[in-house]
Write a structure and sequence with these properties.
single chain; alpha/beta; Aldehyde Dehydrogenase, Chain A, domain 2; 14 helices; about 20% strand
Amino acid sequence: MSQSGHPSDLLDDRSLWKTAAYIDGAWVGETPHGTYQLTNPANGAVIAELPRCKEAETDAAIEAAERAFRSWRRTSAQHRADILRRWFDLTIQHKEDLARLITLEEGKPIREARGEIDYAASFMRWFSEEATRVRGDVIPAKLPSQRIVTLRQPIGVCAAITPWNFPAAMITRKATPALAAGCTMVVKPAGETPLTALALAELAERAGVPKGVFSVVTGNDSRAIGGRLTGHDLVRKVTFTGSTGVGRVLLEQSAATIKKCSMELGGNAPAIIFDDADLDVAIEGVMMAKFRNTGQSCIGANRIYVQDGVYDEFARRFTERVRAMKVADGMDEKSDIGPLIGPGAVAKVEEHIADAVSKGARVLCGGERSELGGQFFMPTVLADVPQGAFVACEETFGPVAPLFRFTDQAEVIEMANDTEFGLGSYLFTQNASRIWAVAEQIEAGLVGINTGFISNETAPFGGIKQSGLGREGSHLGIDEFLEAKYLCWAGVEDY
């Protein structure tokens, strides 16, 4: 890896360094709206300037997607599967470069970034296989002279609005089932992390994805771009990962044209550790669930409930583990905690800690900015946190682990469900009866049982309550991009 001054020199394949929007198979380096700067969250350095797209560029991408859809939908499932498989192979081949791009623009520790590329690529492989499994049905008719057949057809042009915290995986989890189904897609990546999306577009082109089938619209004018994606008549489906507040706006905007929507929104995941839990397993699981991506994960353990009998021991041992974590630039191979995404994220972490302490919580470790300065914050453990603290009802999205004490099962279920959100949750116990009872009563779309690692391509990912609509991944993921068409044949007579 080259060590010269330009950030692109971090890449072995410098052709993956793209600083132009990708629309209708062409790289668009300039728009009438100028450019915006992309900065490295680890040091604030400007790493690139990208074109600002607005309504006109978004419309161009949508119209190209509609043109491409007319032919893409008619390709064979096997043809689409082969292209997605080549995209997977190229992604794995360029895994290191893609991981470096993630770390450079998002700050994620490089070891985790490599894991994200594996995760992102897994959807390419999975949905390349699911493409050939889409099928309809034959249904017994009421009349002997009729036959009923159902077809499953691609919904049409799709729009994806993706977040910065998993800039590769949140694109592939949406784009690959769409393309597998025969849909086309326009992606609006987060303004903080366009480089990863554009590198994926370059690899998609190499894999043989036709022009217009997959476009990436860059820019930090989210309202302008999002307003067209939700308002344009040609867009039939909107898929979004981000905050619940933004999701509400997108749903409202999409209602005018009755678009199909899937939303993966905010979380406030509880992690429950019962007295009979294996503490080694529980500590390892909570470490993973809480501090992945410096705590910036929608399914991160935001509230850690520990039963009386093991509370003190868990707090002591868990704090020792957290105190040993290394805070460093994500490019450091030994980094456990990278920078937060921006100054606002740091301010929110500080606000949540101050509020908890003012209400009686104790800081067991961390609680302050790192000596590295900037957007680095020390991993923090808070003990004796009251249920009324901000960290109990708001998603912190940072490296803060609040410990809540509970006494019995009924109490902790009530505490865990005391939130408008229902995305991820975690449960640690060795009692099989309790596992069934608690897992069924927790109001969440995902339940990790004796593990902090619950995301994979084979499982349906999604929330309930105000954490979203629909499911991504698994065999259900492709259904979000298909419509069922019913054919009723009459006049069938015996001969």
